Structures are given as structure tokens and as C-alpha cells.
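FW: tagging you since you asked about this chain on Friday. Here's the raw sequence from the shared folder, copied in full. Didn't touch anything.
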Amino acid sequence: MEEYHGQKTSAAFMNFKIQTIDLYIIRKFLGTYFGAIFLIILIAVVFDFSEKIDDFLENSAPLRSILFDYYLNFIPYFAVLFAPLFTFIAVIFFTSRMAYNTEVIAILSSGVSFNRLLYPYFLSATFIMIFNLLMGNYIIPEANHQRFTFEEQYYHKVPKGFADRNVHIQIEPGVFVYLETFNTWNNFGRKFSMEKYEKGELVSKLISQEIRWDSTKSSWNIKNYYIRDYINGKQEVREGTSLDTVINLSPDEFKRRDNVVEAMTLKELNDFISNQQMQGSTKINQLLVERNRRFSFPFSTYILTLIGVSVSSRKVRGGIGMHIGVGLLVSFSYILFLQFSSQYAINGSLSPFVATWLPNVIFAFIALYLYKLAPK
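HL: got it, structure written out here
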């Protein structure tokens, strides 16, 4: 009779209908996850405010703007930034407590397999992954845009200037622009040239000593220029003192902050990458790393969840403290490895796809190894 009862209990848990124990674990998982986010964000906001309060006062930032334009948009950014870490800590914390209170042993002894025990964990991980995917690709970029606008007005009071020289960019297929210098204060550039190629041959070249953006006309004014047109092997030269023209180049491109991609939705980022590829930008790998990371980072929720359950479901000497210590070591190792591989991709040593997904592959093997050692 006891054997029959055990088989019945085990069979009841082999299906994937939500059981009471599933709801218990999901509630513990998500409750601990969002509780950890709340506490960490609270600490981060306090430290951030204490660091920037002098700048806020000096630049007369309104309290309403500080609360709603800055910190209301700072919170979701910070929450998603360390989402896998929060996930791992949440799993380690409440699972180790269950193991310490012998709840895991009781569940496994009742006929529930370890694989079935993982079911509510992965349901919760799926919710967190989808939540972070949507936040990272659609909500956070808009929040970052408002946060950056606030920072430029009240924190980075002086706009960041364009310090580069000898700029070479492709503004359209076959059209290349060169600027020796460009001043973002007055949108003024020196030693400007624009070359147009057709089928690999130069057909036109414009050379000017100076160029300035006219915001009232939304066009460029070119001074002291001359144009060479190459037609049927002959060269024609035109020159003048002033020329208003529209080209596919905006002064905003010289004012972009390094983290501008963080304020782009997925569609905007894809369009920006296409535009930068056309212009022959040297930062393509950095952009591709950002795009791939928006998918690989949330996916790591599954891997870190499996590692967390496998490590913390066993009752060990040292209790919760030992589990949390191991958990922090693994999670920070993952983040550190991701940063190293991303730098290799930016420098061109690795492809952006490999660099952003390689940590997931390696830690997936670690997760499978720990899973085999977990109590069954």
C-alpha cells in the first residue's frame, strides 16, 4: 500500500500542472528577487544622491525633475543592469533556507523528482527573462533618454565636445566626407571635403576651407569652395564663396555621447548599426556587442538559476552563509568573464556574437556539472 501511495504521489508531480508546492516556490523566488532589487536600488539611490547633490544644487535642479526625470528612470536601468545577479542571489538565498529547514529533503522524499522540482524555478526564470528582454529593448532606452537629458542639463552642465580630429565617414553609398576639425560649440568645421564615387571611380570632389551648420535652414553653409567634376575623362572646375547645401550629415552625430546606444530601442539600434556600417565606423563591434548582450544577458537567467538550485539545495556545513558566498563568487565570475570577452570583441579579437554568448556556453557546462552533483 505504501509503495502504491509513493507511485501515486510521484505520478502526480510528473505532470506540469501548477501544484501548491510550485506556487510556494514561485512566490518565494519572485518575492526574494524583487525584494533584493528593492534593497539594492535603495542603497544605490542613496549613494548616487549623496555623490551628486552638490551638482544638483549648483545647477539649480528642480526637486520634481530630480525625482521623476532622473531617479524614476535610474531605477529600472539599475534593476535590469544586474538582473542575473539578483536572480542568482534570490535562488541561493531562499533555496538554501529551504535546504537548511529540510524542506528540500521533505519534497524529494515525498516522491517529487529533482527535475520536477526545477519546474517552478524555470517558470519564474522565464518570467524574469521575458521581463528583462522587454525592459532592456523597449522600456529602458526611453528611460535612459530622459535620464541623459536631465544629466546634460543639470549634471553634465557643459555639453561634451567633439575632441576627435581627421574625421572620415561615409554618409551615403559612394559618398565620403572628411573634416580636419569640428567644433560642437558653434557647429563649425575646418578643411572640409566630400568625394563621390560611382562604380569605384571618382566622379566629383568638393573642397572647402570651412563649413558651418545653419539651424534656421537645416542645411550646411560652405565657404570658399571649389568643385571638381570628372565627366568622360575631362575635369570641370566650379568655385564660389558661399554655398548652401543639404547632405546626409547632422551636427548631432558629433555630439553623441559614448553611451548613446543605451537610449536606443532595438529597432533604433539596428537602424543605427546599419547607418554606422555604411559610414565605415570603427565602433561597429562595440555596437554589435551591445545588441547581442541584450539577448545573451537575460538568457543567462536560466543558467544561473540552475547553478543556484544545484548548489543551494544541498544542506552543507556553513549553512546559508556558505551558499551565498559561493553564489556571489559564481555570479561575479560570470559578469567579469562577460566584460573580458566583450573587450576582446570590441578590440576585434573575437566576433561580437561569440564574445557575448561564450560566457553562457561555459557556465552552462558548469551548471550541468553541478546539476549532476545535486541531491536527487
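FW: Residues 1-13 have pLDDT under 50 and may be disordered.
HL: agreed, and DSSP finds eleven helices and six strands in the chain.
FW: great, closing this out.
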